[in-house]
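Methods — Computational structure assignment.
A single polypeptide chain was analysed. Its primary sequence is given first, followed by the predicted tertiary structure written as structure tokens.
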Amino acid sequence: MDTQVKHKHTNSLINETSPYLLQHAHNPVNWYPWGDEALQKAQDEDKLILVSVGYSACHWCHVMERESFEDSAVATVMNNNFVCIKVDREERPDIDQIYMNAVQLITQQGGWPLNCFALPDGRPVYGGTYFQKSQWVNILQSLAKDYKKDKEKFYEYAQNLTEGIKNSDLLPINNNPAKFDNDTLAEMVKKWKTSFDTKEGGPDRSPKFPIPNNYQFLLKYGVLNKDQEVLNQVKLTLDKMAFGGIYDQIGGGFARYSTDIIWKAPHFEKMLYDNAQLMDLYSDAYQYFGDDLYKNVVYETFEFLQREMTAKNGAFYSALDADSEGEEGKFYVWTEEELRSVLSEEEYALTKVYYNIGKKALWEHGNNILLRDKTNDEISKKLNIAVEEIEPRIKKIDAKLLTERAKRTRPGLDDKTLTSWNALMITGLCKASQVFNEDKFKQAAIKNAEFIVSTQTSNEGKLLHSYKDGTSKLNGFLEDYCFVIEAYIDLYQLTFNQVWLERAKDLMDISIENFYDSERGMFYFTSKDATGLVARKMELNDNVIPASNSSMAKSLNNLGLYFDNKAYSSMAETMLNNIQPHMVNYGSGYSNWGQVYLSKVFPYYEIAIVGADAAKKHAELNQNYIANKILIGSEKPSQLPLLENKHVEGDTYIYVCVNKACQLPVTDVAEAIKQIKQ
């Protein structure tokens, strides 16, 4: 049937590939995608632009759409007075950064949906996040009227605001000599500790986001500094998250954040970037703490991703919505009656205690968010069940509930593929493969990396940002380059296949050519060829995803060692030196930078494994948590600087080196571990 017949309204978004934009293609609002047509229309008609930014898994974006954008009367006001542009923030993070920055400067807060009004030339003048319908209509009418009456005031304000945006994240270069010491990190962590929630883990406030790079840094810091308080906090946080409602207890995978301080009630959307990084973090934590809970989290999360977020070509989709049938969390929650109807009496009795049904798990409208607060030992004592019986019985119960849940209306799937988030997934898979010596993780990582090489890389070697239904589009942003570079380095460390290291270096050289600002010694988020935006931004703060600049500093540091490239090493040092003055007061916002910093103040081990048995010794070495290291290896002679002259025919040696100075080579992994001080 023809689309026009089925739907009363169809706008220009109908030709887009983004699921989020397509969701709005039949709104009565005359939405345009970001591009020349919309911007030219605003100039020709002298109308303010509305830039409305959201993403498919955003709950309040859906609410505002239902209340305002699907209302014909509201749409008439919007269409008559504004050129309305819809943006998928995941597809166009460059646009989102600029208008989010504007709204933060105007209102001192931000979030999604993001609604920002701009002059016909794109310079912002006013904005906010979610607006109720009546409030929204008042704002629309008031802005349209004021713009007609006093344009000069709008242009003057836009000029000042745009200058503020341009300058808000441009750090001056730090010309003081680069001096890094552990005292700086100790001071940073001391201040950070004051905001630890020592009862429930994470920060002492809600909402609570996982922020994996926070805990990867704290784990490394705690190990290297022998800080038991920090290590206890990492363990507590990971335990509480894995037990909480933020973790899908029967299906695996984490929601984006918890709305409360006990990790109970999430916004139920599941994002690829969270689950990728959490696989990485929980693998690290298993390697150090040896807790089987963490291993289960990694394997269950991978099963969820394979089941629900992986395409046949090995690409990973972006997100699952929080809502189904118009209700948040409906797909994931259970009433007691539903559980009783699926499970036997004996199974229900265990489920009730194990998942706190009717008690701590009780949420809204008689629904339960399955969560745990007891270990298997505690359950064993309470129910008088042999401890070794509990896990097999729970696995059987989970499988039954998962089968029943699959019959429900599923949350929407954002099936676009983002290069940057897929690269984070490769890194998570590489870590899991190393720690658990598991081939299926390695194969998934290689398949995904080959997808990026074959489909998301142009003939000139540049990256593309987005993929859907056979179409790759949008020139890569710094986040694509930095995470793909890291992913390729991680793949090298997993496979010792030098081609991945060469690919990482090629992408680094392209990044320096297209994104680097030599005056400030940092990288812009957008390429020098990018057009149509009122400012070039720099991403400096680590957040739910590490800042692209901290990721670049990490890779420059590592590639500098791998290729003995002093220019790379010097750039990494300059970047870290620029950031250093800001780190102490806001540790959680600079934790990925903190990982680079640790490599400067503690021995950074270059561990080379060379010889016919390299793979076997590599797997053995990976059973040990080593906080500060890069791995290099080869079964044959290699020209890589860190491997030169290290191959001895007929033997396999392990070399533990720091700053190109090596200890005596050993053949036994246990001996190599003894040479590493931590």
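Note: The longest strand covers residues 48-54.
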